[in-house]
Amino acid sequence: MRTPFAVMGLTITLLAGMSYAHGQRATEQFIPLGHSPGLSGRYTYIGQIASADAQQRTISVSQAGGSHTVKITDATRIWLDRSKLRQTALRGSFGDLKKGEKVEIKYQGNDREQPADWVKVEVVQR
Amino acid sequence: MVSCLRAPRSWRFRAYRLTGASLAAAWLLAGCQAPPPDPQAALIAKGRELFFNETFNGNGRTCGTCHPENNNFTIDPAFIAALPKNDPLFVAEFDPNLKQNFENPRLMREFGLILENLDGFDDLANKFVMRGVPHVLALRTSVGSDQGPRTGWSGDGAPGDRSLRSFAVGAVIQHFTKTLNRVAGVDFRLPADAELDALEAFMLSLGRQQELRLPLPLKGTVAKRGQEIFLDDRLGKCNICHSNAGATAVLGGKNVGNANFDTGIEALPDQPARLTGEKVPRDDGFGVPGDRTFNIAPLVEAADAGPFFHNNAIETIEGAVGFYDGESFNDSPAGRLLASMDPEGKGIELDGTQIVAIAAFLRIVNALENIRQSIDFLEQSARQGFFQRQESATLLGRALDETADSIRVLSGGGLHPQAVMHLKEAERLANEAGHSLFSRTRLARAAIREQQQARAQMIEQ
Hints:
- Chain A is built from two helices and seven strands, in the order ααβββββββ.
- Chain A has helices at residues 2-17, 25-28; strands spanning 45-53, 58-63, 66-71, 77-81, 90-91, 102-107, 116-122.
- Chain A has a seven-stranded mixed β-sheet with strand order 3-2-1-6-7-4-5, with no helix packed on it.
- The longest helix of chain A has 16 residues, at 2-17.
- Mean pLDDT of chain A is 86; it is low at 1-7.
- By secondary structure, chain B is mainly alpha-helical.
- Chain B contains 19 helices and six strands.
- In chain B, strand 3 and strand 4 (254-257) form a beta hairpin.
- In chain B, helix 10 crosses helix 16, helix 13 crosses helix 16 and helix 17 (389-412) packs antiparallel against helix 18.
- The longest helix of chain B is centred in the last third of the chain and has 32 residues, at 352-383.
- Chain B starts with a helix and ends with a helix.
- Residues 1-9 of chain B have low confidence and may be disordered.
- At the A-B interface, helix 1 and helix 2 of A face helix 8, strand 5 and helix 15 of B.
């Protein structure tokens, strides 16, 4: 009797494991850059875009301590944080990742070697 | 000289009198001395204050709007019907900025459903789900999982680091906003770190702090059988995903914590909200796009916190148990998996008496938890000093709410009428305690004894 239940356990574990408990994506859009609870200042990377490579789908982001290249995929969500303009946040695209823009990047699995899970772009001019 | 001798005697006499008076005052006031400061208690108290009173500069709602303490931290149509028209829950009915695409007032009033934009805010008219309000009891036992914290109905309720602490941020953005622009600093303010700490501490303090250890030595014949079926991995199979009637799964001999499953709830025919003809998009559960899974809810707290499931699809606890005997569950990925592992290839097959027996068991564990909480509140009330009347009244009120739930849950299942009599007496005594000037403590203690006698009817001590 142990074997079937062990197999069942393993299978259900696999089933449950598919649902990695990532954060609720929807409301993250409206959290201003640098304020994501439990992430900002700990797991995210905040800096200015030094360059963007549309072909490679990468951006280079610089901080005081150096720079970092970030991979952008189709799954990466890009948001335009317009809270400083007192306007609603919008969904953006790779084209919104321009040199000089201040961005916050959250990596998949909080691993800097992984592509970006989301990127927030701070919009300060109309 | 004389004056020199008399003066000290007089001073000594006055000193004795003062000392005596001080001792007497100290003795009288002993009951109302503030306990030494407890940082965790202070944090929880701050969290309570925020939970019930802080609007975060939004539309007037607080966390307590949808999670009221006197209704098991959830809302249902009966509770909603008793609210005044201008309650902030109904903000979509009177605020022009929130009239469209913020709530569906009909589904809220008729079925207690709340609108959520879990798959994004880019198509408000079409991309939304209608969900019930989960209670926030026993969170300490139900949020953790091997894959990280799971909050809300589908395990993905929190933004940021997805923790319970971060949950309030998502709730403010979704439910507290003044307009659908949802601009921080304009339509609401985001909770500060210290506020999130306090809210988390408060939520974690609510309800059960640890799992039950089944089996319980139950006295009731039907509930005892219900417990056996619940624990039988080849019959009820309930304990696989609701270990000890909680919200954690034990898979392959290992407790994996809270977990998500596609149990086919969305496939149920004749779902009440959809019968209205109102737009109710299919809820795809966890993630974007969703994988149709929802996470396990704790069962100890279930019987008095219906309607059941993420969409409030079923009103009664018997109906909720019966769901697992139906086609929607047994044809679902979770149901098929259970069947494939069964030596006889069966999913969950229960007959009417067995469904009622499991429900009776769930009613009993719920009533026992309510009694535990009632006694706790009554004891706290009895410990309050003479002048701490407001605090005491609040605690008595909470005890009365729990007692009313116990009575309703047991009576609704035709269970333990003798226990119900003791609970009604406990209710009367607690009510009287709340109105008594000098006998509050004595009456609270008498109410505790009635609660204990009620418990003794249900379980071997």
